[in-house]
C-alpha cells in the first residue's frame, strides 16, 4: 500500500513538473453558421489574429483553414493554435477584455466551437 502511494505521488510530481516546463497549447476550431458571409468570416480571422498584439501573455498565435483530404472535419473550417507559458497565462487570456470582446463579435456567426488545451510532451 505504501509503495502505491509513493508511486502515485511520483507520478503527480512528474506530471506537474512536465506541465511547468512545457508550453500550454490552446487549440481552437470554429464551425461557422451556414449564413455567415465571407466578409464576416474574414473579419473574425482578422479580429482573432489581432489578439496576439492585444494580449501580451499570448506567446504564439497561428491560424489556418482546413485542407485535409480525409473529410473528417465535421464542418469545422478554421483552426487557431495559441501557446502560453502556463495555465495562469491561458486563464489571463480567456478573461482579458480583448478576448471577451472578440467572443461577442464571434457569437452571431459561430455555430460551434471546439477547444482543446494540452501541454507539450517534448
Provide tags for this entry.
122 residues, single chain, 4 helices, globular, alpha+beta, 46% helix, Alpha-Beta Plaits, four-stranded antiparallel beta sheet
What is the compact description of this entry?
The chain is 46% helix and 26% strand. With 122 residues, it is an alpha+beta fold. It has a 4-stranded antiparallel sheet.
Mean pLDDT: 89
In what order do the strands lie side by side in the largest sheet?
A: 2-3-1-4
What pattern of helices and strands is seen along the backbone? HEHEEHHE
Number of strands: 4
Strand content: 25-35%
The 3D shape can be described as globular
For the termini, the CA-CA separation is: 32 Å
Describe this structure in words.
With 122 residues, the chain is of the alpha+beta class. It has one domain: Alpha-Beta Plaits, CATH 3.30.70. 46% of the residues lie in helices and 26% in strands. It is built from four helices and four strands. It has helices at residues 2-21, 38-54, 87-95, 97-106, and strands at 24-32, 60-65, 78-84, 110-119. It has a four-stranded antiparallel beta sheet with strand order 2-3-1-4. Helix 2 (38-54) runs antiparallel to helix 4. The longest helix is centred in the first third of the chain and has 20 residues, at 2-21. 7% of the residues are buried.
Helix-strand blueprint:
Elements: H1 2-21, E1 24-32, H2 38-54, E2 60-65, E3 78-84, H3 87-95, H4 97-106, E4 110-119
Antiparallel strand pairs: 1-3, 1-4, 2-3
Helix pairs in contact: 2-4
